[in-house]
Specification:
The chain is an alpha+beta fold. Among the domains are: about 110 residues, Alpha-Beta Complex (Flavocytochrome C3, Chain A, domain 1); about 110 residues, Fumarate reductase/succinate dehydrogenase flavoprotein-like, C-terminal domain (Methane Monooxygenase Hydroxylase, Chain G, domain 1), CATH 1.20.58.100. The protein contains 15 helices and 22 strands. The strands form six sheets. Strands 1, 2, 7, 8, 9, 10, 18 and 19 form an eight-stranded mixed beta sheet that branches. β14 and β15 form a beta hairpin. The radius of gyration is 23 Å and the shape is globular. The chain starts with 6 loop residues before the first strand and ends in a 15-residue tail after the last helix.
């Protein structure tokens, strides 16, 4: 084989960020504000930071205005705890909810165009699971920029980092993490356009690599969300926490699976079955369409499983309807213009006049790389890895537990982005330039295997089979038999992938090589999802076992799973932090292990 894999150059910096989405940009902006002379490099897999998945976030971000007489931070904390099915870490919940409004002001003061009401105040909308007075009634808590809030955050963060001198490296992949003696010194990077491997040594390395939605066949996630950060952590011997906690958004547009924002239900959209009955009253009598996402997703799937769905003639997929016909034109045109346009563009219907077909679509990974409340990455013994941090969807602090409330994800991006940055600033202040003495041969062995394979399978076919089995066996409803079937299929696909040849021999812009690397990552993430789901013999939040349909106190813990060798896991546990309950403060009893009804 003529292709050789070697390091072309070595670069030093103060901070290396693997990712360039909302969490990465908020973190970088804070670091550069506090230390203007810091050398910060952000890597992005795509052609431009603005292509990051955060840009697709639609509905808003939850934050309690201290001047709001109808809401309080304590209510937001309670909703997050209850929504998580009592598996969020309360120290993280408290920290994020208490700093939320400060971050709204940060965004606004730097130019984000939040929507406003006729009085000139920031507009607010309600989302599923957000209440006042500990579940008494829905509350308007989410601020937003029409239905393109994520794009507003990206525009703001991108501008703030650019003017402070950040360096972006586009179209590149982090392929080997440099860790030795519980210390991280950077990573090896594959630059796709140049076809080169470079080593970047950093005082601090931050994972902000996003989600893993491409594990599933129908997903709201962008093409690049292939769980690369989680796979890289696993390959480095680090654990992943709660990988079985995968969220399915109730309303994906039938066909492409594109997100039809929860905003549609917050402004009054009604879910209807084949008989046009508004069925959510049967599943969540009080909150109805505004119950948490896991409950609404299961309700829709239950209607379909019991024969009350509608078969879509174009895609041969059963679904339910979301009815927006009764909403005023002003709502369609000012609050949900982008989502309305999606229905027109992708399914050729007018939501002002016609029912819209939706069904659950994979959306968000509550699990991720385990960190403490400051974003410092932990190993299986819960010891921190010096110089290594994680933030955003790839991280699990854990703010969301086993079910994320709508709008809490982009809240986490900006709050944890700032909190992690503060920790990084302290770390790099006195840290000498990284001189970590560690070999960098793992990436070469891995890519040599890719180039040396001679089998005739199709990478695309293997990827499709993986996504199909995960969607069929390990999605909204799970069983032991189904999960075991998926594990067997994943083992077979891994063996076939290892033998699949790559036609292109060059390194520059070799998309087949990238797809081969992504397939390995997807298979690894799929396997730990399955193994953790098999081990958790209960139903909790978005993890629902038909064969174990109730929550059990025996499983009141976070799953930790390591997998250096494919299919051979090491399972551990991390205690759920209940510090708010244990502190015994105001209404502390609401933060005990409570019943979850809506």
């Amino acid at each position: 084989m003529s292709t050789t894999f070697k390091i072309q150059t070595t670069t030093h910096c103060d901070v290396l960020i693997i990712g360039a989405g909302g969490a990465a940009l908020r973190c970088a902006a804070e670091i550069l504000e506090k230390t203007p002379d810091a050398d910060v490099i952000a890597l992005t897999k795509v052609s431009h930071p603005q292509k990051s998945h955060t840009s697709t976030a639609q509905g808003g971000l939850a934050a309690v205005d201290p001047k709001d007489p109808l809401d309080s931070t304590l209510f937001h904390m309670f909703d997050t705890w209850k929504g998580s099915d009592c598996t969020a870490d309360q120290n993280v919940v408290k920290k994020i909810c208490e700093s939320a409004w400060e971050q709204i002001l940060w965004l606004e003061n730097r130019g984000m165009h939040f929507s406003r009401d006729p009085q000139g105040q920031l507009s607010k909308r309600t989302f599923g699971g957000h209440t006042r007075n500990f579940g008494e009634t829905s509350v308007h808590r989410a601020v937003f920029e029409a239905d393109r809030t994520g794009k507003g955050i990206m525009d703001t963060g991108w501008g703030e980092t650019l003017k402070r001198g950040i360096t972006f490296i586009n179209q590149c992949l982090a392929v080997e993490l440099l860790i030795k003696d519980k210390q991280c010194g950077g990573c090896v990077v594959y630059k796709q356009k140049e076809g080169e491997f470079i080593r970047i040594l950093a005082k601090a390395t931050i994972f902000a690599s996003g989600g893993s939605g491409q594990v599933f066949q129908v997903t709201t996630n962008c093409r690049q969300n292939t769980g690369d950060g989680l796979a890289l952590a696993l390959e480095s011997g680090l654990p992943v926490m709660d990988p079985e906690a995968v969220q399915f958004h109730p309303t994906g547009i039938v066909g492409p699976g594109i997100l039809a924002s929860e905003t549609l239900r917050s402004v009054g959209g009604i879910l209807r079955n084949q008989a046009l009955e508004p069925f959510m009253i049967n599943y969540a009598p009080k909150m109805k369409e505004l119950a948490p996402r896991d409950m609404v997703a299961r309700a829709i799937e239950s209607e379909i499983r019991e024969g009350r769905g509608i078969l879509n003639p174009d895609h041969n997929i059963p679904h339910v309807w979301i009815d927006l016909r009764h909403l005023p034109d002003e709502v369609h045109e000012k609050q949900i213009p982008e989502v309305s346009s999606f229905f027109k563009r992708y399914v050729n219907l007018d939501p002002k006049k016609e029912l819209c077909p939706v069904r659950p679509s994979n959306h968000y990974h509550m699990g991720g790389i385990p960190t403490n409340e400051f974003g410092e990455v932990q190993n299986e013994q819960q010891e921190t890895i010096a110089g290594l941090y994680a933030v955003g969807e790839c991280a699990a602090a854990s703010f969301h537990g086993f079910n994320r409330l709508g709008t809490n994800s982009i809240l986490e991006l900006i709050t944890m982005g700032k909190l992690v940055a503060e920790r990084v600033v302290e770390h790099i202040k006195d840290e000498p330039k990284s001189r970590l003495d560690i070999g960098v041969d793992q990436f070469a062995k891995r890519f040599s295997r890719y180039m040396g394979a001679t089998g005739g399978d199709s990478l695309g076919e293997l990827r499709n089979k993986m996504r199909s089995v995960m969607t069929e066996k390990v999605s909204v409803f799970r069983t032991e038999t189904g999960i075991k079937d998926a594990i067997e299929t994943l083992n077979e696909l891994k063996e076939r992938a290892d033998n699949t040849a790559i036609a292109g021999r060059g390194l520059a812009m070799n998309q087949e090589l990238v797809q081969r690397w992504e397939l390995d990552n997807l298979l690894a993430v799929s396997m730990v999802i399955c193994l953790a789901a098999l081990d958790r013999k209960e139903s909790r939040g978005a993890h629902f076992r038909d064969d174990y349909p109730v929550r059990k106190d025996d499983f009141n813990y976070h799953t930790l799973i390591s997998m250096v060798e494919f299919g051979t896991p090491e399972l551990g546990r991390r205690e759920v932090d209940m510090s708010v309950f244990k502190a015994g403060g105001e209404r502390y009893e609401m933060f005990d292990i409570i019943e979850r009804k809506y």
